[in-house]
Automatic annotation (TrEMBL):
Predominant subcellular localization, coarse grouping: cytoplasm
Compartment list: Cytoplasm, Myofibril, Sarcomere; Sarcoplasmic reticulum
Protein family: Belongs to the protein-tyrosine phosphatase family. Non-receptor class myotubularin subfamily.
Full protein name: Myotubularin-related protein 12
GO CC list: membrane; sarcomere; sarcoplasmic reticulum
Taxon lineage: Eukaryota, Metazoa, Chordata, Craniata, Vertebrata
Domain of life, per lineage: Eukaryota
Keyword Cytoplasm: yes
Key words of the record: Cytoplasm, Sarcoplasmic reticulum
Role of this protein: Acts as an adapter for the myotubularin-related phosphatases. Regulates phosphatase MTM1 protein stability and possibly its intracellular location. By stabilizing MTM1 protein levels, required for skeletal muscle maintenance but not for myogenesis.
GO biological processes: phosphatidylinositol dephosphorylation
Keyword Cytoplasm listed: yes
Subunit structure: Heterodimer with lipid phosphatase MTM1. Heterodimer with lipid phosphatase MTMR2.
Length: 747
């Protein structure tokens, strides 16, 4: 059996140890080890990648039915990844439906993607960390992309077991220095071979020109200006070299409190309202300094709040919204629903699926984020109010909410280039601490909060509800979430632009050389071949039609986005004295003295929100206009492709969204063919349309797990777990509870 690379294991999760050993005699292992060596799969190393330790005669378990089977091979740990090299992997390379990543193989785990490591000692599962006195007979690795790997070490030499287990634990869990990340080894080794994609037109916002272009695109250049006062990061290391502030604001004010207490522009609406963000002023106890801060803020506030022409609504995200602790706790519970070790565990937990899902609160957090973004959208669109987002450092929830607002209001952000530019502007240049929030250095687990993943999950809700409005697919969002843990791209591996610019330069290098040329994740050709990249583009997306001069004349004062707006009248100016209270409240928050409720969080605000929300959803959707998600209970769903893709029991054979997409593509091809025939009759030539992804041509061979898993055999157990049958009762009870056992792919 070993000569073929597959070994039969114990019959169940608690199979007696002797029953496994009896299948293979020690002499068989010795004999077949030579056979495997002859056809050993070559380890693919990236530039700068080095092998640290390895072990042979390792069995990688494959989840199938209620038994365990394994593939025989080598387990290798490098300074970039953990890789398993089976002796029978070549068959996968020839499958045309395989969605392959050129950097990370199917059996590769980057060191940054490792979440938890467990060992099995005498059938007991224990968490592994630090120095071990005893080494496990089985190694289980839970990954941040929710894959689960299980390796049997029973046939591996004792010294190799010690080396590989200790090496994996050390290189995935020990605290690291920034300069020791593989990112720098790769950039140094591949410096002369790095080629950027000429088709990548993502705006990086690393120059004054980029910010001026964005101001002009959104018509924000009438009231706001791009400044270079922080070009050398002398004002604030947290802010980017270039950013946008209100035109009346003197540049010397930016330097006063190292960028704190300054309204920084995010985006401008077609009606002139703007979205701004601000970080809190430093907390001070001295009354004299507090008075100086209050006077300073009064001057700043007057530059953006000039009633009745410009009214500002403040949203304090630090004290009246989600906390980072809530997000961290919710996701920790949520991810456990998908880290399934075996088929038996899947069916045992399936009966409790909905209660476990609800208790995690992850979907409720998504709903709250979308609701907050809709509230801000209503203020800007319907009431023509500027909105100022407040947060301690304006680098977590500010990034999340401002990005969602722009995604709902600006159709440009729903194109692939626009979406990538949005992430560059609000997250990368906005100073989101990717290094800390992803815990890439393993220095502080408490700082690890999946804020960016929460954003992608919110975006997926919009993509799922309004597919034709987005140029990219859910597969694009999934591979983008995976890219958080691939340390050859600089996009998600720094806390700020200053940290990146400092560490990619000559500083700390003994020899004089050119600054490192770090790759950006937006160059998708590094990870995927053109054929695979077709799955990142939505074939159902229709670009906004370009109007000729005659059509533009009649629509001079009406923006496209207004076509889908509810007819909500703008509110009259608030009563006298309100602005004073609003200003005082804002000052208290910026000085760190929080109060429990915002003055403007009244029932009237909720009434406006409900009217705006209901009116928009009662009208036909303009996919190139304002776009609001449904946020009622059942409308917020589990991102099935990302969270369920590695669980064979959760697949729908020949079905799911893949089958639906395949049928739609067939119809599109037929319509396109008819259109071409019509064009031929009129002797007109049109630009060729994008072809449907050829990987979707035969949906019968695929499953709902496509494109991340091939058609897999899955457990033959019934949809209703037998463990729950006794509690279900007779047929009448079964009918009543039918809705509780829907397929996971439709949740």
């Amino acid at each position: 059996m070993l000569g073929k690379g597959v070994v039969g294991g114990g019959g169940g999760t608690k199979a007696p140890k002797p029953s496994f050993v009896s299948y293979v005699r020690p002499e068989e292992i010795h004999t077949n080890e030579k056979e495997v060596t002859e056809k050993e799969v070559t380890l693919h190393l990236l530039p700068g990648e080095q092998v640290l330790c390895e072990a042979s005669t390792v069995l990688k378990y494959v989840q199938e039915d209620s038994s365990q089977h394994g593939v025989y091979g080598r387990l290798v740990c490098t300074d970039f990844k953990i890789a398993f090299l089976g002796d029978d992997e070549s068959t996968l390379d020839n499958d045309e439906t395989q969605f392959k990543n050129k950097v990370i193989g199917e059996n590769d785990i980057t060191l940054h993607c490792v979440d938890q490591i467990y060992g099995v000692f005498d059938e007991k599962k224990k968490t592994l960390f630090g120095q071990l006195k005893k080494y496990p007979e089985k190694l289980i690795i839970h990954c941040k992309d929710l894959r689960v790997f299980q390796f049997c070490l029973r046939y591996t030499k004792e010294e190799e077991v010690k080396r590989i287990v200790s090496g994996i634990i050390h290189h995935t869990q020990a605290p690291k220095l920034l300069k020791r990340l593989f990112l720098f080894s790769y950039a140094t080794a591949a410096q002369n071979n790095t080629v950027t994609d000429p088709k990548n037109h993502t705006v990086m916002f690393d120059s004054l020109k980029d910010w001026c272009w964005e101001l002009e695109r959104t018509k924000g250049n009438m009231k706001y200006k791009a400044v270079s006062v922080n070009e050398d990061y002398e004002v604030c290391e947290r802010l980017p070299a270039y950013f946008v502030v209100p035109t009346p604001l003197p540049e010397e004010n930016v330097q006063r409190f190292q960028g704190h207490g300054i309204p920084i522009w995010c985006w401008s609406c077609h009606n002139g309202s703007a979205l701004l963000k601000m970080s809190a002023l430093p907390k001070e106890q001295d009354d004299g300094i507090l008075q100086i801060q209050k006077s300073f803020f009064d001057r700043i506030y007057k530059t953006i709040h000039r009633p009745p022409y410009e009214i500002v609504k403040t949203e304090d995200l630090s004290s009246n919204f989600l906390s980072l602790q809530e997000i961290q706790t919710a996701y920790s519970k949520f991810k456990q629903l998908f880290l399934i070790d075996n088929s038996t565990e899947f069916w045992d937990t399936d009966i409790k699926w909905f209660s476990l899902l609800e208790s995690s609160s992850w979907l409720d957090i998504i709903r709250r984020c979308l609701k907050k973004a809709i509230e801000i959208t209503e203020c800007m669109e319907a009431q023509n109010m500027n909105v100022l987002l407040l947060e301690e450092n304006a680098s977590d929830l500010c990034c999340l909410i401002s990005s969602l607002v722009q995604l709902m209001m600006d159709p440009h952000c729903r194109t692939r280039i626009g979406f990538q530019s949005l992430i560059q502007k609000e997250w990368v240049m906005g100073g989101h601490c990717f290094l800390d929030r992803c815990n890439h250095l393993r220095q502080n687990d408490k700082e690890e909060v999946p804020v960016f993943l929460l954003f992608l999950d919110c975006v997926w809700q919009l993509v799922h509800q309004h597919p034709p409005a987005f140029e990219f697919t859910e597969t694009y969002l999934t591979v983008l979430s995976d890219s958080l843990y691939i340390p050859i791209f600089s996009t998600f591996f720094f806390n700020s632009p200053h940290q990146k610019d400092t560490n990619m330069g000559r500083e700390g290098q003994e020899t004089q050389s050119k600054p490192l040329n770090l790759l950006t994740v937006w160059d998708w050709s590094v990870q995927f071949e053109p054929k695979a990249q077709t799955l990142l583009k939505n074939p159902l997306y229709v670009e906004k039609p370009k109007l000729d001069k005659g059509q533009r004349k009649g629509m001079r004062f009406k923006h496209q986005r207004q076509l889908s707006l509810p007819l909500t009248q703008s509110k009259s100016s608030p009563k006298r004295g309100f602005f004073r209270e609003e200003t005082d409240h804002l000052i208290k928050n910026l000085l760190g003295k929080r109060i429990s409720k915002l003055i403007n969080s009244s029932d009237e605000l909720q009434d406006n929100f409900r009217e705006f929300y209901d009116t928009w959803h009662s009208k036909p959707t303009d996919y190139h206009g304002l776009l609001l998600p449904h946020i009622e209970g059942p409308e917020i769903k589990v991102w099935a492709q990302r969270y369920l893709r590695w669980i064979p029991e959760a697949q729908i054979l020949g079905g799911g969204r893949v089958a639906t997409m395949s049928k739609l593509l067939e119809m599109m091809e037929e319509v396109q063919s008819l259109q071409e025939k019509i064009d031929e009759r009129h002797h007109s030539q049109q630009a060729p349309q994008a072809e449907a992804p050829c990987l979707l041509r035969n949906s019968a061979r695929l499953s709902s797990l496509f494109p991340f898993a091939l058609l897999q055999r899955h457990s033959s157990k019934p949809v209703l777990p037998t463990s729950g049958w006794k509690a279900l009762g007779d047929e009448d009870d079964l009918a009543k509870q039918e809705d509780e056992f829907v397929d996971l792919g439709d949740v």
